[in-house]
Write a structure and sequence with these properties.
140 residues; alpha+beta; Alpha-Beta Plaits; 4-stranded antiparallel sheet; 6 helices; 4 strands; 44% helix
Amino acid sequence: MSSPLQFQLRITVTAELAQSLRSDVSCAGHPALRAILQTHHATLKCQFDAFADYVSEAERRGTEHYPLYQWTRQTIENPEKKAKYLQSFTLYVNGDEVYGKDVADALEAGLSKLIDTNGILRVSRYDTNPANNPQPPART
């Protein structure tokens, strides 16, 4: 029996909001967003920061154990991609980066109400089905 799909949500925000969220992880300056996150026991992590953390960890522990090291390093060093990922935030629920459909649905419904207000541009949903996700790039 296969396990059910799990989901991850990300929000894309304005550059101004991104800067604020990166410096204030509690979202104290954004009460509507903070309320939704608290209701669902969710936190935000900037995609750029997550990528930079991955690169740092790989360099400390040995890049041969990190199959996405080269791609991730090139991504954070590319100015256009850096700008894109600085405005993208992954939502973690109870510390988990993927979660069940019911949780994702409820969180997405709340976040969708904030689009075009408070600097939120888009809410994106991803699932754990490998057919719906790109495969890691080949090593060069």
